[in-house]
Amino acid sequence: MYSTLLVDLPVVPKEDKRSGAWQRVDTRVGGIWEDVTPIIYILLGSPSKIRMESQREKRHTCGTICLKYLLLLFNLLFWLAGGAVLAVGVWTLVEKSEYISLLNSSFYSASAYILIAAGVIVIMTGIIGCCATLKEMKSLLIVYLCLLLCIFLLELIAGVLAFITYQECFPFCYQLDEELRQNLKVTMQLKYQQPGEESVTQAVDKLQQEFKCCGSHNSSDWTDSVWIQENERLVPDSCCKTPIDLCGRRDHPSNIYKVEGGCIMKLEEFILSQLYILGAVGIGVAFLQLVGMMFTCCLYQNLKDDPY
């Protein structure tokens, strides 16, 4: 009887309260995610857009690295150019300083000092450029760009002026020629081999031997020389093609240099050729700096766009 009752009773499933609670949590989380997802897409973009942004940042990083290496390479070349300019300035003062005593103005020495100053400025600018590039400092890049621009303008102006001066002077540079004509002949006649004028004597001897000339205009300029008259000579020994003691007692063309125009023409040609070279180098380096300024601007823009 009891067994029949147990069998016949309907089995009622027991309610799982815990399962219902988790279902309600899942439903709420799903609703919240559906509400938040559009906002995330608005802020960050779609998944494909996020992937595109990541690729763009990678390309941006590669571009910045390439620009840094290019700018470092430019600074290396800039250093070498500055060192070359500095070396030329020092060489001009050391090796060609004798000619300064033959000129009435300070044109020659001023040119040498300008070269030395320009070389130092270029080297210092290159150091600033390397620091700005390696440290990626935007403010220092602006300073570097301004220095490059100033040097570019100065070199361009100097180069153009040098070319203008060269075109106006050669072959009839009246200002330079007048200076030399008035001073070189007088210097040779009054100061050569005189006490306290050793620098002039060395300059004249080196000028005549190096340029193979004799006298300011010709060998007859030495006729009125104080030293020549006192020592009964015709020309200094430095006028001789083979300089030996007392060779200046004979002024035959086979013995001394007979150059049309004399040492004035040779010295003019030398100074003007140096002016021409300096002008060409100045303009060449100035246009090279345009490349450096372009790299600097590109790197600055990349760093400016980089949020990190």
TrEMBL record:
Q: Which UniProt keywords apply?
A: Cell membrane, Glycoprotein, Lipoprotein, Membrane, Palmitate, Transmembrane, Transmembrane helix
Choose any GO biological process term that the UniProt entry carries and state it. cell migration
Q: Does the keyword Lipoprotein apply?
A: yes
The reply on keyword Chaperone is no
Give the location in the cell: Cell membrane
Report TM segments. Answer: 69-92, 112-134, 141-166, 275-300
Q: What is its main location?
A: membrane
The membrane topology noted for this protein in its Swiss-Prot or TrEMBL record is: Multi-pass membrane protein
Its Gene Ontology cellular component terms are: plasma membrane
InterPro entries noted in UniProt: Tetraspanin/Peripherin, Tetraspanin_EC2_sf
Q: Which domain of life is it from?
A: Eukaryota
Q: Which PANTHER family match?
A: CD151 ANTIGEN, TETRASPANIN
Q: Which family, according to UniProt?
A: Belongs to the tetraspanin (TM4SF) family.
Q: What is this protein called?
A: CD151 antigen GP27 Membrane glycoprotein
